[in-house]
Amino acid sequence: MRRWVARAREMGAPDAKIVGPAGVLTAAWVRLKCQYGCDGYGQRLTCPPFSPTAGETRAVLDEYRHLLLVHGGPWRSVTKIVTRIEREAFLEGHYKAFAWGAGPCTLCRACDTSGACTHADRARPSMEAAGIDVYATARAAGMPIEVVRARGERGDYYGLVALE
After folding, report:
1. What DSSP string describes 139-163?
2. Domain residues for 27?
3. Is pLDDT at 123 greater than 90 in this prediction?
4. What is the pLDDT of residues 126-140, one digit of tens each?
């Protein structure tokens, strides 16, 4: 599993760690921040109300032993890193590999939420859209994360890859 930590760093992530499913915290309130705090709510198939609930995500996480928590730069780059790792891991035989990104999907200018995703090979829900408490998860792993208090202030973005 350490190979995936090194791979995330090779791809530009400042840090990555292997954590167990208990180290990834889920909570129902997280999706409320999407619904009442993000103007993208309901606009993407990777966002609530289309994304998995915290309970559904918890059940999925508990089916794995190893998860790669990736601390990245801008949220778009984190999502690219974790989806690339998911693909590489799958091709190496980790058939259960699955990634959660950061922030809303930007693969399409406008998402047609009435049908199937046209980029299902790369589109993934963000950790927060799936009910993962990113702050508590990062802090439990000893990784940095703080609330962004002003425009232009750089945030800490995270992605996750479930590996088996």
Report:
1. HHTT-------STTPPPPEEEEEEE
2. 2-163
3. yes
4. 999 999 999 999 999
